[in-house]
Amino acid sequence: MNKEGQRASTGRDPVDDRELVESARKGDRDAFRTLFERYHRRAYALAFGVLRHPDDALDVVQDAFIKAHKYLDKFEGNSSFYTWLYRIVMNLAIDHLRKHRRAKPVELDEQHLEEGAAAGDDALLPKFLGGNPGRALLDKEIRARIDQALGELSENHRAVLVMRELEGMSYEEMAQAMGCSKGTIMSRLFHARKNMQKRLVDLMEGRRVTDDETEDAAASGSRG
Amino acid sequence: MKDADLMSLADGELDEREARDLEDKLARDPIARGKLDAVGELGELVRGHLELSADAVPQKKFDALWREIDKGIERASAESESTPATKNEAAPAPAGFLRRVGRWFDAHRGHIISGVVGAGAVATLALILRGPSGDNLAGTKGSHPIDTTPVSAPAEIESLDTPGGTGTVFNLEDDDGDTTVIWVTPEDTVEGI
Amino acid sequence: MSPRIWLATLALGLGLGVTGASAQPKGDAECSYIEISATNDKAASIDPDLKSLEKKLKKPPFTAWNNFKKLSGGGSSLTKNKAETIKLKQGGASLMLRDRSATRVELTVTMDGVDGKRVLEAKPAFKAGDWLLLVGTNAKDDGHILALTCK
């Protein structure tokens, strides 16, 4: 798993982005629009992953780009433009969760990471999809189940999972974004993954049973 | 082999020596290898799902979003030229204490340092607040996206620890000079985010 | 020195120390604090003793409350790297001067709640004469404000 590899997935030339930022700073709105066109969907994916509400996600993306434009002269170019932008998106998404907190149970199962990981029933599960997640994503039912499983996570768990899997943020970066310790981040991430796996493996086992029954029926029909 | 270590390996959080040691053990432990692969598998599912969800949003929604952003940029430019006194005026406060405070924060994002520190965390923040001439921005030693260049002689909060709560720092400007506010919100009002 | 002159000198020194009227030797600071309770009541009011902060308390975000009462107040003469305890009506606080220049003071400030638990520890650096407000809220959404200023 390569954090840097994940982050470079846009394939954008960072020099190109810096030129656009420079032009936008000088008032070139088209340059800023180009940056928007490049990154708006990725920013939306991040906000949607955390917030789970399309309209809220759009609001956060809107606010993030407005804020990014406002503080463009503070962007020093030490990181890529998108890295800078996604941090703004995350901060706003987390702010949004704080201010518009919907009734979600606090994760009572958030034991200390070591306890949780040691207990057999709370362990991570081995691979369950047969090594082809890309193909699985073509399946609407699997997509719906992933969506449902994400929605059933607590906001804390979902935020860390999204930050890690979508943006490849390190534990330290996530700890700073959420204002908690690295240990808490690790615990939340562990439980998020465990809970997602549990919800998804049920689906896969159900599908395997259904497929077996279908094969048996087909076989008996052909014999019959 | 602890699942926590497998997770750290999958996330690239181990140093070279630790990663190598763990990989050696994994070569002899197919179940642990399966768990490691499962973490990667789940990550691809979540990432792929979210990216596909974003792709599914019709482009016209994003076109409309750009129009709002464009307006927002215009408004922000106009606001930055208005006087400090008017900036500190708030709309009539709605019911609910935190909503009232939250509405004020929302209306004054450009003036508020988002130096938010979680419960029990000792965050070393270098929050630099601008003086009356401009906006208040946050700069931290961590991954906060906004850096600042102080214009006048602003207040600084070199570190902030708020056990059992979250601290937010902001600056108020008036005729008497700058007022720095450190606002601590108890933990039970932010837990479960 | 006669006892009368000695006593007069002592009294003058103490008076200057409390009021902060003397020129500050480098490394020292005279700080004043006001402890305030902030609530919402039927009638809005601001304690007359809070005149120096009235303008600020009438502005957002303090408009979350409409009633402000002074609970305690006083002064604290700070010497560099020596913490001074402040007894509050609700909890306690301590101040320590880390450094100062002609125009700025750097403090370490701690606040404890009524249950003795640490609520805040901060290291602010701000302009002498400006105010630092430490605000906490309780479960009933009432506010507790410690206002500090140093010269």
Describe this structure in words.
The complex is a heterotrimer of chains A (224), B (193) and C (151). Chain A has helices spanning 3-7, 14-25, 29-51, 54-70, 81-99, 113-118, 133-136, 140-152, 155-167, 171-178, 182-223. By secondary structure, chain A is mainly alpha-helical. The termini of chain A are far apart. Chain B starts with a helix and ends in a 7-residue tail after the last strand. Chain B is an alpha+beta fold. Chain B has helices spanning 3-10, 16-26, 30-55, 59-79, 84-87, 97-107; strands spanning 112-117, 122-123, 127-128, 156-161, 165-174, 177-186. By secondary structure, chain C is mainly beta. Chain C has helices at 3-19, 54-57; strands at 28-39, 45-46, 67-79, 84-87, 92-100, 104-112, 118-127, 131-137, 143-150. Chain C has a 5-stranded mixed β-sheet. In chain C, a hairpin with a 5-residue loop joins strand 6 and strand 7. Chains in contact: A-B, B-C. Strand 4 of chain B pairs antiparallel with strand 7 (118-127) of chain C, so a sheet runs across the interface.
Mean pLDDT score of chain C, rounded? 82
Largest interface: A-B, 93 and 75 residues
Shape of chain B: flat
Fraction of residues in helix of chain B? 40-55%
Structural class based on helices, strands and sheet pairing of chain B: alpha+beta
Order of SSEs of chain C: HEEHEEEEEEE
Count, helices of chain B = 6
Question: Over all CA atoms, what is the radius of gyration of chain B?
Answer: 23 Å
* Rounded mean pLDDT score of chain B: 68
Please state roughly what percent of the residues of chain B sit in beta strands, choosing from under 5%, 5-15%, 15-25%, 25-35%, 35-45% or over 45%. 15-25%
Largest sheet strand order of chain C: 2-3-1-9-8
Number of contiguous helices of chain C = 2
Q: What low-confidence regions of chain B span 5 or more consecutive residues with pLDDT below 50?
A: 85-95, 109-153, 188-193
Summed up, the domain count of chain C is 1
